[in-house]
Amino acid sequence: MRVGIVGGGPAGISAAIFLKRYGIDCTVFEKKSLGGLLRNAWRVENIPLFKPTSGEDIVKIMNSYLKIYDVKVVFDEVTTVNKNEIVTRNGRYFFDEIIVASGTVPNRIVGFENERVAYEYTDLFEFNSLAIYGAGDVAFDGAIKAKLEGKKVSIFSRNVKVKAVPILFETAKKLGIDMHLGEEIKDVEYKKNYVEIHTAVNTYKFDKLLLAIGRKIDLSFVKTSDVYLIGDVAHPDFRQASIAVSDGIKIAMKILRRGEDWKY
Questions:
Q1: DSSP states of 35-91
Q2: How far apart are CA 16 and CA 24, in angstroms?
Q3: Hey, what domains does the chain have and what are their CATH numbers?
Q4: What is the value of pTM for the model shown?
Q5: Which range is the signal sequence, renumbered to this chain (predicted)?
Q6: Which of 1, 212, 229, 239 is 20 to 30 Å from 154 at the Cα level?
Q7: Per-residue pLDDT tens for 9-30?
């Protein structure tokens, strides 16, 4: 039996490791870096198997298991998933079973996009000051990481209400992170060496801008219902690494039981 897994986040990695332990030939497809959004987390404290640690450290542990079990990883963008077929920008692959663990995509503000803008903290490079637009976990994770790295950071949001978990909000306050809650970004101008942010209150200058205004699933590339959905793409309202890991294991077990008659 051959299994193709679209997405190298916690869900996809967990499924691959579990299947490989039972001798199933697995291939993981990832267009960016292994670990998914977990790489952006300042600290993960809700998985009782680990002491509180950074998302990057947990991803390193997961990646080490991929190497231990010699799981094949293809770094390429998946453009289409058909029944038993995964199409990437550079090839076509055929499998007996396909798992889609592609996670979520950001809610974009196309008019703000530029080389100085990112939707994930790990995509930001070479900056001393950072503006973050949003008030959820992604925004506060990024703000805390930037502050602890010695960067100047300010959070802006449309609403006064903070959607991040309380511990992130309290940590940000303790660190003295500059917050402009309820101060909507109206316009963004890009100069040669900085980004200029305009609100109804003032104009600000920063090196980079992180847009963190929510995420959504995108299954437009999946052209068949004969796949397994796991992780955030299966339940975007319950985006937790622990749930993603259990999803991966659960579906791997289903595939093993379904394939009991296969000769592998």
A1: TGGGGG-S-B-S-TTS-SB-HHHHHHHHHHHHHHTT-EEEES-EEEEETTEEEETTE
A2: 9
A3: 2-104+217-258 (3.50.50.60), 107-211 (3.50.50.60)
A4: 0.93
A5: none
A6: 239
A7: 999 999 999 999 999 999 999 9
